[in-house]
Amino acid sequence: MVLRDLHGGDEAPSTIFVLKLMKGGEAIPYELVVSETRLRIVHKFNQTEYAELCISDEDIIHARLAGVSLQLTAVKSRYDSLMPYGLNQWEYHLYSKEIKLMFTLLQGDADIRAPWKFVGNESIEIIMNPNDEVCSFVIESYKTVWKKKTYEDYIQACERVDTHYKQWLQDMPVVPDKYEPSRELAAYITWSCVVHPEGQLKDYAMYMSKNWMFNIWSWDNCFNAMMLSANRPELALAQLDLFIRHQDESGIYADFINDKFLSFNCCKPPIHAWAFKNMRNQNSWFDDKAIVARMYDSLTRATNYWLEHRRADASCLPVYNHGNDSGWDNASIFHHGIPVEAPDLAAHLIRQMDILSEMAVELQLEDEATAWKVEADKLYGLLLERLVQDSRFVARYAPEDRIIEHQDSLILMMPIIIGYRLPQNIVETLVNTLVDRFEAAFGLCTESHASPLYRENGYWLGPIWAPVTYLFIDALMDNGYNEFATRLACKFMDLTLVGGMAENFDPVSGEGLVDPAFTWTSSVFLMLAGQFSSPWREIG
C-alpha cells in the first residue's frame, strides 16, 4: 500500500511513501474498506481498529487512527530530507518532486526515525501512534512556504468532502438502474481526476487518469469538456483554455500539459471546433460573444498550423509526423513509416474549417467565412483525389507518395464525419464496411477483426476505444443511420458493465485493458447515458 503524488506528470516517479498498519511494533494484516471519499485500512482480525484517510482539501490529507499505528516509509532520493518544524510538526523536502510536505500531529504520538547522512536522511520512517486509542494528523503539500491554519474535526472535514462529491454525482446524467454502477464509477473517476491550478496548469484540469497517464492531453480534454458542458460550463471551458493559454506562435496546441511540463513533440487531431460546437449545443452559456471570439481566434491559428506547417505545399494534404499525432499511436497505417497522409486528418480539418466558417458569419467576419469555405473545398477536393480508391479511403506514405497497401484500420473509416459532403455511395460503403469488417460484440474494432494484424490487446490494433466510438456514433446520427448509431451506443453502455472505465477494451469479451480508470471513457459513457434515453438501454 502506497501514498502517491502526481506532480511532474507521468514521467516522474509517483510513489512517495509505503504505508503499513502497525500494532505493538509489528506490521499486521489488514483489509480495505473504501468509498469515493475515504480509505479505511482495517485490522483484519479486529474491525474496531483501523486507520482512515480522507483528502479533505486541495493538497491536504486528513487521517485518523483507532487502536493501531500507521507507518509511513519514504521512497526517497538522495537529497530528500525531513526536519523538525514546530511543536508536533515535521517538514519533508522532496527534491525529486519539487514540493514540500508538512506533517502535523493533532492528537496522539509520533515516532520519527530519520538518521542524517551528510546531505540527506539515510532513511525516513514516520510512525503515527494512538494516544488513548486515538491519533489524528494531517499531511499538506505545497511548493514554498507552509501557511498556518486551523484544522476542523476529522468527521467535519470528511462530511464536507462527501457533500462536494454528492453534488458532482447529482450533476451526472440519470440512467436506468442497470447502468447505475457504471454511472457511479464514471462519476467518481472524473471527479477524482480533477487537479487544481499550479505551475503550467493555469486552471482546473481533468487528468486522463491517476494511475499512469496523469497529464491532460489535447484531444482527451475535448471529450471531458463536452461531458462537463451541461452542468459545469466553467470547468468545461477550462479544459480547452488550458491549451489556448500555452498555444505556440505557430498555432500548434501542446500534446499534453501537466503542472511542470508542456510537450510539443506531437500534437493531436483537430477535433476542437467540433467539440466546441457540441458544447454550445448543450449549453447556451458558451454562446457569449467574447467566448466565441476567443475560441475562433485560437481555432483559426490551430487550423492554419496544419495547413502551413504540415504539408510541403497546397497540392498535397497535411500529414501526421507520428502515430501519436493522430491519437491512434500504433495504428496499422503507421507501420510503413512516417509522415503519413491520412484521410481522418483531412476530414477533421475540413469539418473544422466548415465550423470556422459558421463562426466567422456569427462574428460578422464575412470575408473570413468565405475564405474558410474556399479552403475547405480545396482540401475536400484533394482528399477525394488523393485518398479515395473504389469508394474507399486509403492512406499514403508521404515520402514516396504511394498508397499504403494495408487498409484494415478503423481510422480509414473516419471521413464519415464529413458525410454531409461525401457522395452517398461513399457514405454507404463506409457504413457497410463498418458493419461487415469492424463491428464486434461490444462495438467497433480499431483494426478489422478480419485483419492479420488484429490483436485483442493490441492498443489501436483491435481494442475498442471510447473517443472514436463517440465520434462514429455522432457521425452516424448526423447522416441518418440512427439504428446503427443506437446499436453502437447500446453496446458501449453494456461494455462498461463488463470492463469498467478502462482505457480500451477487448472487442469480443469486453475485458478492460491497460489503464482501468480513464476519464475520457467515463465521459463518453456519461454523454451516451444522457443522449440515449429510450428503452433500448434496457437491452442487455
Automatic annotation (TrEMBL):
InterPro entries: 6-hairpin_glycosidase_sf, 6hp_glycosidase-like_sf, Glycoside_hydrolase_63, MGH1-like_GH
UniProt-listed GO biological process terms: oligosaccharide metabolic process; protein N-linked glycosylation
Entries under Gene3D superfamilies matching the protein: 1.50.10.10
GO molecular function, one term: Glc3Man9GlcNAc2 oligosaccharide glucosidase activity
Keywords, sorted A to Z: Glycosidase, Hydrolase
One Pfam entry name: MGH1-like_GH
Every Mannosylglycerate hydrolase MGH1-like glycoside hydrolase domain range: 215-521
PANTHER family assigned: MANNOSYL-OLIGOSACCHARIDE GLUCOSIDASE
Family classification: Belongs to the glycosyl hydrolase 63 family.
Name by which UniProt lists this protein: Mannosylglycerate hydrolase MGH1-like glycoside hydrolase domain-containing protein
Organism: Paenibacillus albiflavus
